[in-house]
Amino acid sequence: MNNVNIRNKLLFSYILVVLLPVLLIGLVLTLSMMEMATERAMYEASNSVDRVYGRLNETFKLANDLFGQFNMDTNLERTVMTRYQTVNEVLDAYSGYSAIMNCTRYYSREIEDIKLYTYNETMLGSGQFIIADGDIYGQTWFEQARILNGGVYWQMFNNPIRNSKHLSLTTQLKGAIQLKPLGVLVISIKQSCLTSIVIDEPYETILLDDKGIVLAAKKVELVNKKLDMEDLKILSDMPSGIHEIIYGDKKVKAIVRTFLPSTNNKEFRIVSLVPLDAITDKVTKSFMLGFLIMMISFVMAAVLFIFFANSISKRVKRISEDMHTVTLGNFDFLPSIEGNDEIGQLSRDLGVMVKSINDLIKEVYVVNMQKNQLAIRQREIKLKILASQINPHFLFNALEAIRMRAYCNGDEEVAEVIMLLGKIMRRNLEIGNELVFFHEEVNLIKAYLDIQKFRYRNRFNYTLNYSRALDNYKMLPFIIQPIIENAVVHGLKSVEEGGDISLKAEKESGILRIIIEDNGCGMDEEQMRYIADSLNEVEDSVGQHIGLKNVHQRIKLYYGEDHGMTITSTLGKGTKVEITLPAEG
């Protein structure tokens, strides 16, 4: 084998490893599929019989339940046992009792009719009651019910009114109080109900009573007929199980299930006929499908093996040529074989080896270049560090020294203002976008307003009105101070004295409202429109009202579009700014 090229080795491997095993497995699978098809058909037929039995049993149970209901109906007993003197008395009694008619209407899908053949000759024939006369007494079904004396018997009942036969429950009904016979109760099952039980089954299904009469079948022409055909006559006496019979010159599998609708009946039968040629057709289709799959597998495998054999052979030849090129001293080699298989990996390893030789030659140059670049970057970093070494503590210490000097000189007001200024500067430097407490924001506002009062003296006064319960409310920082600053710088710019700035905060309907008002110059409608438009601009802009826009958009970004800032103003009277935030922070 070492003297055989790779292509021929792979073709030999295909025959030995693929072709022979696939033939063997295909044969086994085909035989298994044939067996599975047969079992599947019998399984479906058995399930069909079980479904029919279940639905039929529900129908019989419904009739038995109705019998039990009427057997305990004292109103029915009173109606039937009363001896009537006039027709009006009978009609009054009928109008007061409608249970039989109600049950017939309610179970109209299953029940064809419910009749009580009464022994009370003083009653009148109606939809519910029929007087048992001499003709009825002579009928077999009536005498059978009287003989059983309360026992249930299922039989084909001929309805003389509708001139049709129906499978019916017949029994002699007794009173619940006096325990005397009331008459013979007949509960007839609708033929359409029985037909619906078998009509949708996959195979020919027949329901037989204990006399061999067809109660229901997929072939409607068999209904109410006795199986006297030679090929089906045997079904009347077959026990439960699977039997093979001849039906219409064809072999069929007959799946029979017997059951007793009542202790007074003999066995009823459910029969499902499965044609063996149907099973054979499925088996043939399975065999042909298996054979087709095997043929397609053989062809595809052969084509793929030839393709891969040629591909591998070419790749091995190419790597051999590349290695020969390297042995001649050509170190500008690049891998010419792609892929992640062993041959591709071998080609890449060859390329790595050649690259390592070139890297050794260039190593000194590359190392020197890297050292120079590193030195340049280190100098840049040092410059950036020196540029950023402004210590904010220097500013605080300087302000504190100035404050102490003013305090020592007796100028306590200046000392207080310097302390407030230091507090504002420290908070501006230390606070980022983290949430702060409401009382911290208010302290910042008081410090700012006190500094401005120091500057402008009696130019304005301010009031802060809010509940102490809001002290621990957490909110975004610097969303009130810019509004206060705007009121001082712009709102009161033309006010010499008597200016007033107020802040009010309260919770209302799940919202925290913060209202800042001033009695300054106010704005006209054109200025208001300009400010309203600028607040909702997405692009950054340079100019006035940057602080207001920043506050408005920060609120909307953090709390959502339902919150933000609204401004109302009257020229010459003042401006009102309302900020809405969630009540829970």
Q: How would you briefly describe this protein structure?
A:
The protein has helices spanning 6-71, 74-81, 87-96, 99-106, 134-137, 140-148, 191-198, 276-327, 342-387, 392-408, 412-430, 438-456, 481-491, 525-535, 546-559; strands at residues 111-118, 129-131, 153-159, 164-174, 181-189, 204-208, 214-217, 241-247, 250-259, 268-275, 436-437, 460-466, 474-475, 499-508, 511-518, 564-570, 574-582. It is of the alpha+beta class. A hairpin with an 8-residue loop joins β9 (250-259) and β10.
How does the helix and strand content classify structurally? alpha+beta
> How would you characterize the largest beta sheet?
5 strands, mixed
Mean pLDDT comes to 80
Distance between the termini: 82 Å
Please describe what this structure looks like.
The protein is an alpha+beta fold. Helices cover 52% and strands 20% of the residues. It contains 15 helices and 17 strands. α8 crosses α9 and α11 crosses α12. It is flat. Residues 377-391 have low confidence and may be disordered.
Secondary-structure blueprint:
Layout: H1 6-71, H2 74-81, H3 87-96, H4 99-106, E1 111-118, E2 129-131, H5 134-137, H6 140-148, E3 153-159, E4 164-174, E5 181-189, H7 191-198, E6 204-208, E7 214-217, E8 241-247, E9 250-259, E10 268-275, H8 276-327, H9 342-387, H10 392-408, H11 412-430, E11 436-437, H12 438-456, E12 460-466, E13 474-475, H13 481-491, E14 499-508, E15 511-518, H14 525-535, H15 546-559, E16 564-570, E17 574-582
Parallel strand pairs: 1-2, 12-14
Antiparallel strand pairs: 1-5, 3-4, 4-5, 6-7, 6-10, 8-9, 9-10, 11-13, 14-15, 15-17, 16-17
Helix pairs in contact: 1-8, 8-9, 10-11, 11-12, 12-13
